[in-house]
Specification:
Layout lengths: L1 H16 L9 E9 L2 E9 L2 H22 L7 H8 L5 E2 L2 H16 L9 H4 L12 H8 L7 E4 L4 E4 L9 H18 L5 E5 L2 E5 L7 E7 L2 E11 L3 E6 L4 E4 L2 E4 L13 E8 L2 H14 L1 H9 L5 E6 L4 E3 L1 H5 L7
Antiparallel strand pairs: 1-2, 2-6, 3-5, 4-5, 6-7, 7-10, 8-9, 10-13, 11-12, 13-14, 14-15
Helix pairs in contact: 2-7, 7-8, 8-9
């Protein structure tokens, strides 16, 4: 009798934790690594644990390849080569690199320049760990190189050239949007239907969580242990950008990593932006766009796009929801 009770308890615990029991190979699998300078996590349900582990390994492998290609910190990366040589001559680039830069230009045009990967022309002068920011003279000189129109792509030769010296690009979170999209595509191709792929503030969700939505929390920008909202989501991507991710404060000014291309300074007026969209590239680009544009202009952009919603925490800590989320306000927990 005791052994039967013990078996029943173990079976219940395994079911709660998502671990397979002796009669089933199905269950939840997860793995976490540090890639692209952030935490990358994959969680999925599969009927075959070995197949699930192999799928996760394939996603992590893809993440590492993106990092090796698109990191601005690796001396031999393709992005480093572009920044080193493109002001002097056209630089041949890979198909994936060409495509992501071309997509970045589309988002620059959509956002009227609020999203611009050439922000790095100034952005590289900030060091948030060492609490370094550019002087006014440095800022003025470097700011002149910002502008997505300085990126000249040749689709026939598949090259990129910078129109002037001093231009730099940084794919930053945009590459993480690509990474979670690619990760989700890998899982989908392997028959995985319930999963989440996360890289820092970017996630791509497949299906639901076995009968209920994935509950994604939006943290309070000033209190790490508190959520300002919880979004129930299925089959979407989302991204969050906050002024608390990489920052330092000096003389009452918060210097953070979301740079306004128009000024070369950290964008003000907003503490965090979360965007829900069909894919991670879109959600990531729009978080940066809305952050720079501010609540009014940013929300107008969001409302003009199909399948896109947003939650913004403004500089005073007030929450702003797009109309799509307000329409389903009963599902949004605060």
């Amino acid at each position: 009798m005791f052994s039967e009770l013990k078996h029943a308890v173990r079976h219940a615990v395994d079911a709660i934790r998502g671990r397979p029991d002796a009669g089933s190979q199905g269950g939840w699998s997860s793995r976490e690594e540090v890639i692209m300078g952030t935490s990358v996590r994959v969680e999925l349900w599969t009927e075959d644990r070995a197949a699930g582990d192999a799928a996760i390994a394939a996603v992590m492998g893809r993440m590492h390849r993106i990092d090796e290609t698109m990191s601005p910190f690796k001396r031999e990366s393709e992005l480093t080569r572009i920044n080193r040589d493109a002001a002097d001559r056209p630089v041949p680039i890979s198909g994936p690199m060409y495509d992501i830069i071309a997509r970045s230009i589309e988002f620059s045009e959509l956002s009227e320049g609020a999203f611009d990967i050439t922000f790095a022309s100034v952005g590289h002068l900030y060091d948030y760990r060492l609490r370094i920011h550019p002087s006014e003279d440095q800022l003025a000189r470097a700011r002149a190189a910002i502008g997505y129109r300085n990126l000249i792509l040749d689709p026939q030769a598949r090259t990129i050239r910078f129109a002037r010296p001093g231009v730099r690009i940084d794919l930053g979170g945009f590459a993480k949007g690509l990474a979670v999209d690619d990760g989700a595509a890998i899982l989908r191709s392997r028959g995985i239907r319930n999963a989440i792929v996360t890289a820092g503030g970017d996630s791509h969700i497949l299906g639901d969580r076995r009968g209920r939505p994935w509950a994604i929390g939006i943290r309070d920008p000033r209190k790490a242990d508190r959520m300002v909202a919880v979004l129930p989501l299925e089959d979407v991507a989302l991204s969050t950008s906050g002024d608390y991710e990489r920052y330092f404060e000096q003389d009452g000014i918060r210097y953070h990593h979301v740079i306004d291309p128009a000024t070369g300074r950290s964008a003000g007026g907003v503490r965090s932006v979360t965007v829900v969209a069909p894919d991670g590239l879109t959600s990531e680009a729009l978080t940066k766009s809305v952050f720079v544009m501010g609540v009014d202009r940013g929300m107008r952009l969001v409302e003009s796009l199909d399948g896109v919603d947003a939650v913004v925490v403004d500089a005073g800590g007030a929450l702003h929801y797009s109309s799509g989320l307000l329409a389903s306000a009963g599902q949004v927990r605060q």
